[in-house]
């Protein structure tokens, strides 16, 4: 088999323009019913070092006093112990409680670096996409209405928010980026996961080569397969410049892979960009999370938990340590040219030669499922 050297910059190519239909919104009523699930979330990230041989893009970040700039800085102020600092590169993410704390929505995005050649900063698209996705998640429900049967019919029918699936959230957020004046062009992968606190249902939408996995009893029971047009060219949400540019992919949220399952107590959900999955095997992810879990004392029995109390810090610390250690391990693998990486194996399957880890931005979000009843 003939081997070819590999350029690891992600690719953007042309495709027919899509016609995006409006997302379906179902208006729901509010409820104060108990929710037996609670989710503890940690996040960590590390931007790759700038390539001195790569073109530098002279664009401005979102101003600190703008809505997106202020939200970006607040998101990056989350406590983390990883030694990578606050630089996140072209990745971004969000963690958002949904309406009336009915669940939590998690999102992760990776700006496609190929736009640098066109003078476009890829980070602006991914930041704007996650900002608008978190806005929609904040005011929506993760599933069916939590209707209190003791209420009158008229009270149950009162409009109070809407149910929004991850796919709908992705589509609406993309639409807002297309109208965002500060983002002139760009594209990004996207993965959105909603966790329902009332019934433990996980729903997801994934477009591109970011993704997530579910770990149960030290085993990976689900691992999101990447979506690509061809090797190292992921499916991606795109915004083209208004003039002078005819190349670029036009994938939509309707092209996303959808998944739904029930989570149980102790499940660990790990969202990641491809800077992680290109360097760390799923079995290694499960091993690291399991090792850290054993270092923490078990939580109190469900009957001992107070539903009105603040989240126990033990679980919060546990998921943050998991996120930090996963990012640290991915960074170690990136610079190791003697270790076979998932990216090297994927390249070999395409008849391409690549050795060791792949340098990239890496972002990880970890959620731990706890049943309180």
Describe how the helices and strands are arranged.
Blueprint: E1 4-5, E2 26-27, E3 37-46, H1 67-75, E4 91-97, E5 103-111, H2 122-138, E6 140-141, H3 153-156, E7 162-163, H4 166-178, E8 186-196, E9 201-207, E10 211-216, E11 219-223, E12 228-230, E13 233-234, E14 237-239, E15 257-262, E16 268-272, H5 274-277, H6 282-293, H7 313-334, H8 342-349, E17 352-353, E18 362-371
Parallel strand pairs: 1-17, 6-7
Antiparallel strand pairs: 2-7, 3-18, 4-5, 5-8, 8-9, 8-14, 9-15, 10-11, 10-16, 12-13, 16-18
In angstroms, what is the radius of gyration? 21 Å
Q: Helical content, roughly? A: 10-25%
The end-to-end span amounts to 58 Å
Give the overall average pLDDT.
Answer: 85
> What's the shape?
globular
Mind summarizing the main beta sheet? 6 strands, antiparallel
How many alpha or pi helices? 8
**Care to count the β-strands?**
18
N-to-C SSE string, H for helix and E for strand: EEEHEEHEHEHEEEEEEEEEHHHHEE
Beta-strand content bin? 25-35%
The class by helix and strand makeup works out as alpha+beta
Oligomer: single chain
Unreliable residue runs:
1-5, 14-31
Describe the structure.
It contains eight helices and 18 strands. With 373 residues, it is an alpha+beta fold. The strands form five sheets. Strands 4, 5, 8, 9, 14 and 15 form a six-stranded antiparallel β-sheet that branches. It has a five-stranded antiparallel β-sheet with strand order 3-18-16-10-11. A three-stranded mixed β-sheet has the order 2-7-6. Helix 6 packs antiparallel against helix 7. The longest helix is centred in the last third of the chain and has 22 residues, at 313-334. The N and C termini lie far apart (58 Å). Its EC number is 3.1.3.16. InterPro entries: PPM-type-like_dom_sf, PPM-type_phosphatase-like_dom, PPTC7.
